[in-house]
Amino acid sequence: MDKRNKNRLISALAVILVLAAALVSAMVSGLGGKETENAPADALAAAQATPVPQDVPDGTVLRKEGEAYFPDEKNWVYHFTYAYPHVTGQDYAALTVNDTYQMALDEMLQLVLPMFANEPAMRYDGKNEVHHDFEVKCNNGRFLSILQKKSQTRGEEGAFLSLESLTFDMSGEYLGESLTLRGVVMVGDSTDQIAAALLPPIYDEFVKLQEMGICKKDVDRETFEIEFSPAIHFYADDEGNAVFYLPPSLMAEPSFQTHVFIYSPQELEKLL
Fold first, then answer.
1. Which of 67, 137, 62, 70 minimizes the C-alpha distance to 101?
2. Phi/psi-derived region of residue 71, left when phi > 0, alpha when psi is between -120 and 50, beta in every other case
3. Residues 182-236 pLDDT 10s
4. Quick one: pLDDT at residue 40?
5. Which CATH architecture is the domain 3-179 placed in?
6. Which of 148, 147, 68 is nearest to 112 (CA)?
7. Is the dihedral of CA 114, 118, 124, 125 positive or negative?
8. 195: left (phi over 0), alpha (psi -120 to 50) or beta
9. Considering only CA atoms, which of 248, 230, 227, 223 is closest in space to residue 190?
10. What is the distance between the alpha carbons of residues 217 and 251, in angstroms, rounded to a whole number?
């Protein structure tokens, strides 16, 4: 087994261990008190079917789309519609990125939603919609940045929105891996150092947005730092800048169109 395939296997095993730990944690907390049913066969079939046009250049990001019902289409409690990224090509970086998102999709289809559909406490009003979509923020050969947009109804609470991002190394030292903030900008001693330096100026801008009515006015500094982390809520753009985005939960009107703050590596270095 060559080094790259060995690394892919190790990464896959690590993800499996994380998912297993999550399942155990859910059981302990009472969400998994009884055995869950397997994902519907049609959902798994849809997840595996990824038509790739023959004339699409390698490195193109396609949409893997589908839907599934849990526990079944006739008596559904959860309806899942999704679009996940699929990178064309057979190079190591593309295969590793695809592995990452395939495992995330499999987790939803085979673990999370079957468990929720069979747990009374997670059924809410009985007709829950879960939708996952994504947007490519950068695909310049050096970085691939994917911003996932996730929504889930919670009964009378309405829809809960969240954003999640990963930036992958497509041609550098950490080929195929998701990068930390420092791994993107390559300044400073650590991601924690950069994040600590960024929080004060970004919070100052957040206060201005509160005064303008764009962001929630009842969010104080402590809550802000719980909801937002520069080490998590970022992606790279085509120019190699770090783009930091506010979570939908901080906006006055929850939306996927949140406010962003753009910093070049040089600007970040000056903050340190």
1. 62
2. alpha
3. 999 999 999 999 999 999 999 999 999 999 999 999 999 999 999 999 999 999 9
4. 57
5. 2-Layer Sandwich (3.30)
6. 68
7. positive
8. alpha
9. 230
10. 9
Would you place residue 153 in the very low, low, confident or very high pLDDT band (cuts 50, 70, 90)? confident
**253: its two tokens:** 């009107």
Output the CA–CA distances (angstroms, integers) from residue 55 to 58, 60, 88, in the order listed: 9, 11, 10
Q: Are 100 and 94 in contact (CB under 8 A)?
A: no
DSSP label at residue 6: H
Q: What is the rounded average pLDDT of the residues 25-49?
A: 45
Query: CA distances (Å), 205 to each of 199, 266, 268, in order?
Result: 10, 20, 16
CA atoms 187, 189, 192, 193: torsion sign: negative
CB atoms within 10 A of CB 123: 15
Q: Hey, is 31 helix, strand or coil?
A: coil
Residue whose structure tokens are 């190591």 = 92
Q: Is the pLDDT score of 172 beyond 90?
A: yes
Burial class (CB in 10 A: 0-12, 13-18, 19+), 219: middle
Q: Indicate the Cα dihedral angle 115, 116, 121, 127, nearest 10°.
A: -150
Phi first, then psi: give them for residue 101, nearest 5 degrees: -80, -30
Rounded to 10 degrees, the C-alpha dihedral 92/98/100/102 comes to: -150
Q: Is residue 200 helix, strand or coil?
A: helix
User: Which residue(s) pair with 251 in the sheet?
Assistant: 215
SS3 142: coil
Q: Which of 239, 240, 234 is nearest to 261 (CA)?
A: 234
